[in-house]
């Protein structure tokens, strides 16, 4: 593969797509049809090459079109065993308990893909994994979300063995792509649609579930390899994460020139690097604003006008229009639905 011919930076591992290709070939589809318009060859998947987000998206679009299966992401994720995740999987498998395995997986997730930002937090008695979009993939992001969630559930069940049933609720921030009942049948847990975030929510006590394959030495070796992979990620590959980090630190939503100065870069360079990640500065800002808006609207003591100001909108009506675009309802309606 010639990375420069794609006009987009190649930083996604081919490991996961290799499994998808095997699945499609098993259904009778030729490699030529699967890789159509991706500028990739079958040899690229045998040499552990890296590909761009645009190439990934093209193959996923081809796969969904060929299979006519909108829930292909779930089925593909279920086929990934823990070794499919490379050193991240080995580190998780050697963890002491599910909570430690989860921490390791999230810390090193970007060594496997930068299409999504995976976060973890606790709320009441629940542990919550949240999948946020990094690259702009409007057509295939549901595939990415469902792939990550189904893979996580499969790995969690593997690590827990028969000790405890993995009970959870899945929340998706979009309408069902197929039959809603089929989602629950495939995931094995309840699924809610049109939610504020893409999340897996499960009881916090499950984090203490021991992992039968725990091994401190093996975990240390796997973590060392993961750290090496993190160090290899260059500035451009991780630019979205750096911008999100800066936004949290600034507690503001600065213009592109201001952000460029903070990153010791230029607006032109940032625009070019974000385009290579199939996203934009405006999209990154909008995603951050959306998350902050939901966080603040969940605090009923904060007025909608205050939320608007916190997000950098001088006119609350502009905030209202943006929020409708994000969630399909007004800030007031969203807050009312949470009472």
Can you offer a commentary on this structure?
- The protein has 339 residues and is α+β, with helices and mostly antiparallel strands.
- The chain has three domains: 3-68, no CATH class; 77-231, no CATH class; 239-337, Homeodomain-like (Arc Repressor Mutant, subunit A), CATH 1.10.10.60.
- The chain contains 16 helices and seven strands.
- The protein has helices at 15-26, 31-34, 53-67, 72-79, 86-93, 98-107, 141-160, 180-187, 216-232, 239-250, 256-262, 267-276, 281-297, 304-310, 316-327, 331-337, and strands spanning 12-13, 50-51, 116-123, 126-133, 169-171, 191-192, 199-203.
- The chain has a five-stranded mixed beta sheet with strand order 3-4-7-5-6. Strands 1-2 form a two-stranded antiparallel ribbon.
- A hairpin with a 2-residue loop joins strand 3 and strand 4.
- The longest helix has 20 residues, at 141-160.
- The radius of gyration is 20 Å and the shape is globular.
- Mean pLDDT is 86; it is low at 1-8.
């Amino acid at each position: 593969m010639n990375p420069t011919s794609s006009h987009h930076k190649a930083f996604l591992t081919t490991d996961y797509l290799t499994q998808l290709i095997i699945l499609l070939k098993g259904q009778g589809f030729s490699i030529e049809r699967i890789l159509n318009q991706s500028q990739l060859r079958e040899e690229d998947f045998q040499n552990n090459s890296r590909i761009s987000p645009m190439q990934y998206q093209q193959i996923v679009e081809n796969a969904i079109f060929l299979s006519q299966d909108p829930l292909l992401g779930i089925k593909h994720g279920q086929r990934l065993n823990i070794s499919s995740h490379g050193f991240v999987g080995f580190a998780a498998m050697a963890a002491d308990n599910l909570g430690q395995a989860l921490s390791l997986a999230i810390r090193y997730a970007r060594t496997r893909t930068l299409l999504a930002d995976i976060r973890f937090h606790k709320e009441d008695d629940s542990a919550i994994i949240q999948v946020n979009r990094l690259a702009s993939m409007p057509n295939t992001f549901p595939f990415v979300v469902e792939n990550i969630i189904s893979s996580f559930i499969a790995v969690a069940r593997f690590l827990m063995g028969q000790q405890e049933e993995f009970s959870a609720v899945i929340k998706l921030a979009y309408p069902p792509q197929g039959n809603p009942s089929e989602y629950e049948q495939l995931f094995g847990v309840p699924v809610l649609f049109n939610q504020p975030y893409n999340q897996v929510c499960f009881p916090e006590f499950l984090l203490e579930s021991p992992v039968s394959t725990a091994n401190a030495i093996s975990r240390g070796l796997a973590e060392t390899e993961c750290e090496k992979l993190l160090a290899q990620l260059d500035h451009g590959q991780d630019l979205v994460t750096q911008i999100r980090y800066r936004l949290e630190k600034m507690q503001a939503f600065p213009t592109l020139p201001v952000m460029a100065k903070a990153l010791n870069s230029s607006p032109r360079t940032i625009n070019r690097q974000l385009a290579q990640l199939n996203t934009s500065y405006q999209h990154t800002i909008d995603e951050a604003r959306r998350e902050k808006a939901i966080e603040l609207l969940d605090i009923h003591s904060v007025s909608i006008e205050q939320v608007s100001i916190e997000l950098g909108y001088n006119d609350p009506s502009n905030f209202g229009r943006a929020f409708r675009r994000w969630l399909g309802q007004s800030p007031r309606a969203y807050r009312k639905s949470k009472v």
